[in-house]
Every structure is written in structure tokens, then in C-alpha cells.
Amino acid sequence: MMEGVADKQAELTRQDFVSDQAVRWCPGCGDYMILANMQKAMTQMGTNKEDFLCVSGIGCSSRITYYLDTYGIHSIHGRALAVATGAKLANPDLNVWVFTGDGDCLAIGGNHFIHSCRRNINLNVVIFNNKVYGMTKGQSSPTTPAGIKTKTAPEGSIENTFNIGELAIGSGATFFARVPDNNHKLLEEVMLEANKHTGISVIEVLQNCVIFTDGIHELITGKETKDDNQVVCKHGEPLLFGKDRLYGLKLDGMKLKKVPYDENDTGFISHDMYDEDSAMHLALAKMEIPDLPVAMGIIRQAEKSNYANVLHQNIKRARELSEFKTVHDLFYSGNTWEV
Amino acid sequence: MAELALEKEMRKVVVRFSGDSGDGMQLTGDMFSQSSGQEGLDLTTTPDFPAEIRAPQGSIGGVSSFQIQIGGTEIYTPGDQVDVLVVMNPAALKANLDKLKPGGTIIADMDSFDRRNLKKAEYASDPLVDNTLDEYHVIKAPATSLTKSALKDLGLSNQAITRSKNMFALGIVAYIFSRPLAKVKKLIDNKFAKRPELAEANKLALEAGFNFSESTELFGASIVIPPAKLPKGTYRNIDGNTAVAWGFLAASENSGRKLSLCSYPITPASEILHELTARKDMGAIVFQAEDEIAAICAAIGASFSGNLSVTTTSGPGASLKSEAMGLALISEIPLVIVNVQRAGPSTGLPTKTEQSDLYQALYGRHGDAPMVVMAASSPDDCFRFSYEAAKIAMEHSTPVILLSDTYLASGTSPWRIPDMAELPEIKIPVFDRSPEEWEPYQRDPEYLSRYWKSPGDAGFEHRIGGLEKKENTGNLTYEPANHQKMTKIRAEKIERIAKKLPELETIGAQQGKLMVVGWGSTHGAINTAVTELLEDGEKSVGFAHFNYIQPLPANTEEIFGRYDQILVCEINNGQFVNYLRSIYPQFSYKQLNKIQGQPFFTSEIKAEIINRLTDL
What we know:
A: alpha/beta; 8-stranded mixed β-sheet; B: 4 domains; 21 strands; globular
């Protein structure tokens, strides 16, 4: 459900969301695409400009709040979700967007991430996943693949990674989508769908860092390989991929398997993003090259009660039933005496 | 055995109720407090809980106590030494006998002094029978058995009957202090309004205790304490944590801003979280966060949304919040951080009191990061100071740290319910000009408060954050001169708040040899000590108490200059005294520090003052 429903929406253009601050990401950074598509998507969200609140943490990704001409908080490292939670609970009419990175959100901010997913509070979270710490100049992050060399792993990372989709869905997130930074159409579409979703919406953007991990997503997002290595999930449709969409997915026991597509074979998996049971969504989110394509688009969108709505319903009911109209009534309740 | 040491008419009396954790001593104490308040007495109470959640029944570790001092004069502490000690089992006697005055009165449930309980309390022989208690006045009351027989027809479970024996004890105490039985029964009715069968049982037990006292004539005459001369008004008993919570509710109502409380559970601050959670019925928006950092960060978000925003914690939590305090400070948004201090460092003595987070409040942030620091000094004035903290935070767009502590949090005192109209107005510096004139870091010229605009206000969209901001525009900048200027503005902003603060007041000598100084929760003990010395004719001692610590009241230096020596008394290893030394190094300071997880006794302060005067 949309919040801060607009009355002046028709007048908004992308330019309304462009702030007067010079954008200072490295030339060629994937962040530019996210910014441009966000500004464009915001014009179509049905929210008045003044009812947007953008919150970020620390890192390259988090500079975005200065470039979006909305109310914004550029907070501290890892804490954007916590700040956004308080702001949303204080004024549930706001349309709150959180911008964060793989280090900000999953390392120092990991606790807030899992608990925000669990609470299913109505926030939209865009995670810029470049699989490295950019602003602090190239250290390993929780999504840096094993073997990748970084400043803190000169022999190649020896850590296991978080799969953001698996972590989000496993923690109770009701909306998870993944998008490459070079698919503008999908990026905008996913942002608009996240906006409509009631509850937490997590969008992982595979974002390219031109300095430290340039080309880290290349096999997934590159022109030559993307058809084989991406499957774009569309609700109700079979999950097809490869040049000319020649492959589909089947279950082999508990595991997904790449199989040449045959439209007469009913054993191929169609995408059901509304499935309450998250098992298939987790399986899709976990798919990795080279054996399987990486799932893109909206992988999960489930309905569940969301914290902010329930809290405010409870407050409203308590207020209606309350014997205390003002604090005066409260202070005089119970045992008092006169002097 | 000694004769009854209580006189027919006394100015003040200290009573201590003590028993096993399951004996309902806190409730008994609370009822006695209410009853004392109704009789027009001033009072201060303190509970003493066992550290363990459920220590073994009958063990010394499981003893729970409640101490109250009542008086016809102003009462500022729960008292040093006990006049009347009520013990529901041998362990309670063992744990508390050292607190009883020589010749004091013991009321013991003799039924509980059986072999099993004596052994658990590590008594080789029965102290009610041997000569252990010869110097005291002992009243042996068969509380358990008489309660059982009084309640035998009610059809209650054995457990429910045994649980009522605390009211038997209250009945004895009510008799001793000449309390009208009907009024005490009314308190029981109110307490158990939803459980009439328990109200009935408790009233019967109360009556049994009262009648036992009357018919056995153990006491001679009962005691009358003339009522205190308190300001006229309607009163209720209140503990520090509830008072803090209510102060915020009042500030929310008077400022017209919704209240957001974002907190993480921690002893001894959790009751504020509990109370405001229950105050959904007043519209409070309460968020229990996943950790201390999330709690303060959520409060920062709520503040930017335009609410009166509060986070509550104790020392360990305050440590975790320190980075985010800096964010609130550089963003110049209102926020109240309540630290209900406990004994540290680290986990320390989590259920015991201390004033040792003062350095942390003053200095515990990176960068030049001055914040308002203030401290409440009694359970009832926790209300006033949480209201003040909210007012200062909102009017000056700044984070404020309010210090309370375990002693205030769980202690109670009578609170004169204020008329909302008599509370100071809260004037929020909302920007009142057009969007064309808006710049996010413009400020009110007198106090340098940054103006407010909140999401939802069209045309005023702006960003705040942790990076240094250009003066007025709030744009990001690394200009060297701007950082210096903004740092100075942030410091000046805190200093200028002193203009609004009440001046430091002194009692006793207005100049002379010794100025006794305290801050926060030590007020009661120091005030009582100095007052008693003044009554004894001492003429060279003055006393001043600080509630505002940063900034200090404007006349602090002038007042200190009138005395030869400043004696700073605090429940830590000397933090306020060093802070004063750093600001006013010209004065001669001495210090009295108690670091035992316990509040000061009046006697300790008196002794130190006398000691200092001898030296001077």
C-alpha cells in the first residue's frame, strides 16, 4: 500500500528529485544508474515530494541522500535501518527509503538488517552490492567471494559470504528482488513494486565498483554472458533463460537443475512470487553460476502483518479505550491524598 | 530484653520490612507508604532486592527488604539506621540486624523461626530464644498461624493464605503508628480491585495483625507522628522511573509533539520502558529495539520526524550509544538520553547504585562534542527534570543527557501533582518563514538553536547527517575555517543555555569556611546532614546542590568564591570534583567518595564535615 498519497503527483518530474549538490561518485560507478532510476521512479510512486524520507548509512552508496532532493538523513555506519525505523514509527505516513551497501548493511549493520526483516516494518531498502568496501578503499565485505583479492585479503578472501536474498528471506523479509545495475527498466520496475509492497522490501542491486572490484558481476551482467547467467523472475511464467530462452528449471529431488526447455513438459517451474512458503524463493535466491543462472527480478513478495501498522492500530485502540484523556487524568489515577 | 525504644511522639521514624522474596515485602512497604502519605507525613523509601531473580526460599540471598523513613519534618532519605525492623523469617533477621539502632524494635514472625529456616539462615540456635537480641525490643508475633486461622473459612489455597501474612505484619505496624484501619483497608481494596477474594483475605489478615497488637498489649501506647508541613496540594507516592516517564508525557502534552521512546531493556532503566509501553493509552509510541545502538538511532529518526524523542538506558547501554549521540549533536536535533546509572565499570554491580557515569556523560564521545548534562535529585523531582530535559532538548535542538540512578529509580517519595498550567511553557523553534528563506542550519540568534522543519512540510526538504555542515546552508564542506566556526557554535550553544537555568541556591552559611557540594541523587543525605549541623548551631557551613552540570549555573563561580574550602560528596571516585577543578581551578577542593554500590548515610557526611571543619 502506498503511503503519503499524493495530491500534487502529476506535477512531479525527475528534476524535482535532483538536489543542488554535485554528485561525487567515480566516473562509471554503478551508483549513477541507481540514482537516476530512483529519481525517475519517485515521480511515479504516488507520494508527495515532502512525504519522502531517504535514510542512508556510511559508504559510497550512502552519499545518495545528498543527491535526492527529499527529506533525508545521512546517518552513521550501519545504522540507517534503525534510524529509518524510528522515523517511520514516529510518522507512519512517510514513504521511507533506505540506501545502504554490502558492508554498511550486512557487516556493521547486520543486526539491524535481520531484525528489520523480521519485524517486516514498511521500509524500502536498496542495497548497493559491489562486494567490497569502496569508500575505505578496498577491504573485504561480507559478500566478497572467496578467492577475490582485497586489501585485507591479499591472498584472496578466505571467508564465506552472505547471500543477501537468503539472509533477507531467512530473516523474514516479505519482499526481495535482485537487479543488475545496468538493467534500467528492471531497476525502475522493481523500485515501483517495492513501493507498493506493505512491509519490508529489500532490493539487492548488483552494482559495479570501477575502482576496486571492476567487473566483479561481469559474468552475470555482461552483454555476452547475461542471457545464460541470469533468469528474470516473472510471476506466473516459467523461469526461462539462455539465448532464445532455451533453458528452464526443474526440481531434481530437493535441488534446482538447468534443463533444456520443452513447453509440453509440465515439470518446469513457474515463478510464484506470492507463495507464502519461502522454500522455492530461497532456492531461487541461492542459485549461482556456473551451474545455474542468477535469479533477477522480484523473487519473493508475501503478505504478512507489518509492525508499524499493527503498532499504530494498537495505540489507536488503547487511546480510544483509555480512561486518561490528558496526563492530568493519569496523574490523579490510583491512590492520591490531599495536604 | 530492652524496653520499647519508641516514644509516644516522634519527629521521624525508620521502618524496614524484610522477608523472603515471596513474602510480599515490597507491597507491604508500598501500602505503608501510601498510608503514611495519607496521614500527611513526609517520607522517602528505598527497596533492597536480592540480586538473584529466584534465590532459594528462606536463604539470606533471597531476602527482600523495603525501608521507609516517615516524619513530621521534611524527609529526604530513607534513613541511616532502622527504628522498627519487621522480619518474616530468620534470614531476614540475619541480613538486617546490623541496620537496626541499638535498642530498636524487632517484629518477628515467630512461626517461621523453625529448625529448617534457622538452618538456612545459618543460625545455630533460635535468636528469638537465646540472648542474641537482648539489647533490642522484640515482639514475637505468630503471624503465619494467626493468618491461617483468620482466613480458614475463605476456601483459599494454602499458598494464597500464607501469602497474606504480610498484611498481618502491616496490621501490627498500622497499630503501632495509630493508623485508621478503615483507610488501610481502602488501600487494599484499591490494590486488589480486580480480585475481590484476595482483597477480602488481605483485609482479614490486616485486621488479625491489628487486633493481635491491641489485645496483647505488647507495645504499651501506640505512636503518633505529627503531620509534616508540606505545601498544599494533591499528592501521590512516586518512584523515580515512573516520574521520569511521566515527565516526558507531560512535556509531550505541553509541547503538542507526540512522544517516541526507543529503548533496549537494561537494569535499572527498564521500568521507564515498561511504563511508557503501558502508556499507549496516552498515545506514546514505544519501540523496543534490537540493541542499544538501534534504540538511540531510532530515536534520532523519530526526532527528525518531529516527535519528542527519548532513549533510556544505563551505563553499558550509554557506552554503546555514544557514536549516535554525536550524530544527534552534529545534526542539531532534539533528543533526550536518560542514563539510570548503576555501579560499573562493565557489568559491575548491575542492581546497585552509583554516580560513576558522569565522565561518560560529559566526555564520552569522539570529537568536540559538548552536550547538556543534568541530574535529578529525588524520586519525585525526576518528573521535573525529565520535563526540563525534554524542554531544553526541544527548545535548543540539542541532545540532553539526564542522569538518574538506581537509588532514585526504585526509591519513592511523595509527589505533589502539578497543575499542567504551572509547568513552564515549551516553545519549539519551528521555522516560521517561507521556503525561499529556508536554510537548514539557520539558527535563532539569541540561543543559537537550529530551526526545525520536519518531513511532511512541503518546500523545506533538506538533509541532515553526520558530516560537517556549512554554516547556515548545511551543505557538506571541508573548509577549515568552517569546521572551527561550527565547533565553536556547538560549544557556545550549550554554554548559552546557562542563561535560562535557575541560579545555584545555598542553604546555611552564605560565606565562610566550608561549602558542601553534591549533585544528583545525593541531595537527600547531604541536605539532611547539613541541616542537622545547622540545627546544632554550626554556623560556618553552606550547602549547594547541582542538578545542572553542563552548563553549570551561571553563579557557580561567584558562590564558590565565598568559602575557604569546597567539599564535594559523590557516589564515585571523584568525577564531579575533577570536573569542577578543571573549570574553576582557583578553589580549594576536598572530596568525599563512597564507592560501595550504596547511597550515603547522613552520618557519613556529617562526620566528614566535622572532620573538615576541625582541619580548617
